[in-house]
Amino acid sequence: MRLAELLKPFVDNAVLKADWGALEIGGLSSDSRYAKAGDLFFALRGEHSHGLAFLNALREKKVSAIVYEAAEGYEIPSDLPAIEIENLTALLPKIGYAFYQNAIENLTLMGVTGTEGKTSVTQFVAQAFEHLGQSCALIGTNGIGFLGELKENTHTTPDLLALYRSLSEINQAFDVKYKGEEGAGKRPCTLEVTSHALAQKRVENLRFLVTAQTNLTRDHLDYHGTIEAYAAEKAKLFYEYESVSSVLNIDDELGESLYHGLQERIPSRILYPYGQGECDHPNFLQIQDLTLTHSGLAFTLQFQGEQYALESPLYGSFNAYNLTAMVGILLSYGIEMEAIVGILPKITHVKGRMERVELKNGAVALVDYAHKPNALLQALNSLREHLSEGQLTVVFGCGGDRDRGKRPLMAEIAEAHADRVVITSDNPRSEDPQAIIDEIKSGLKEPESSSILEEISRQKAIAMAISETQKGDIVLVAGKGHEDYQILADRVIHFSDIEEIERFNRE
């Protein structure tokens, strides 16, 4: 697209020099680190700096042109096409969508929000499509693209222009996959939608086939301030964005509120409520007779008068909820229940989400991303139900420069629901790791108990926990999940919980 064509609705023609208007724009970016040759770069006022501070880097990357918000102290080279646009930040979603609209609207978007479960649900959906013989793209914590070929993602939900570009690239990837094939119009894409993304309007203009909600528990209060403000941001996905249907966990307070609110405010919305409770909606997906065993979980799913007996190799009662959310999303897409039931047992764990390693001594170790109080509570309670004999050990820490209020809560939960607790480091960042551990321990009732251990080195903590196991024991290594790094004060080092467990298991 030419620069003049893109900017015509937003700037006076007189602002564009004759030769600038003919410039071809290959993409849009607002982060100099990820700008590409041929991009139109948006130099915006940031919290700590202005985009104009990176002019040299942008010239080296050979961007086509720059649009910018006025700022003092920056000299723009005369040979660099640069156009000042008033209120550029406010116009960003409109300009960005005008550029990427055709590509984005080729995709069938399925958005998932919630404190826990977003990554699992989106990846379960993508797995399900593959088992049904169709590709499904995804954007989330574990990457962008298709299963088996995910590209690294800097944010669970990328910033607005990066998200638009990613969706456009996914559409291009579908072009390649579907070249000359039938069904080229079917382009499903699941998207994790965070509260930060909703607060910062990173998903503006997107239209969803289905929006789904997993749960709401304490998180990101350092950003939102209160749980009520956090819930209000999550609710925006359902009230402020176009969606044909919504999948809601009515066993969750926010999900129940959305269930009633949507019937009143948007009665045309097709709803798929789910949970173990009671609900008189005709599309209610009721989880019944949930059983957890050493080999996984089993439950009955009741839907529209029919009962479906299901088994899964996944650990954790919450995964019965995640699988049921997946079912609701697939039903929204138009897939028949019988087909969904047929592939559900084939859905496997997501990397870093209850990822299981069978230890050579007969014990089981699991790596999970649980780094919030409720997530840790759910994980421990579920694993206790899977435990037929033996002890339950948990290894965890809390991130530095993050919500300090959750630290004693995590300790309280670990002490109450595990037989042995090993407190360690988890991305201490600029904080003193020992100080973080001390704050965690302030939530313990019996800090001197022999069942409470501490070890700053996460590597040693994992080894300590596993070395004491016997057949029938379960060890949960919580907090980092899929992450393969540890963030220290002065550097980032490679570190993977699953690699440490597998290495110890080989020795």
Question: Would you mind describing this structure in some detail?
Answer:
With 507 residues, this protein is of the alpha/beta class. The protein has three domains: 3-90, Udp-n-acetylmuramoylalanyl-d-glutamate--2,6- Diaminopimelate Ligase, Chain: A, domain 1 (3-Layer(aba) Sandwich); 105-276 and 319-334, 3-Layer(aba) Sandwich (UDP-N-acetylmuramoyl-L-alanine:D-glutamate ligase); 355-506, Mur ligase, C-terminal domain (Protein-Tyrosine Phosphatase, Chain A). It has helices at 3-7, 18-21, 55-60, 88-104, 118-131, 160-177, 195-199, 221-224, 227-239, 253-265, 318-333, 337-343, 373-386, 406-417, 433-441, 458-467, 497-506, and strands spanning 27-29, 39-43, 65-68, 82-84, 108-113, 137-140, 143-146, 188-192, 208-213, 243-249, 270-275, 285-293, 296-303, 306-312, 355-358, 364-368, 392-396, 420-423, 452-454, 474-478, 485-487, 492-494. The strands form four sheets. A ten-stranded mixed β-sheet has the order 7-6-8-5-9-10-11-12-13-14, sandwiched between helices. Strands 15-16-20-17-18-19 form a six-stranded mixed β-sheet, sandwiched between helices. A four-stranded parallel β-sheet has the order 1-2-3-4. Helix 5 crosses helix 11 (318-333) and helix 16 (458-467) crosses helix 17. The longest helix has 18 residues, at 160-177. The termini are far apart. The model has no long low-confidence stretch (mean pLDDT 94).
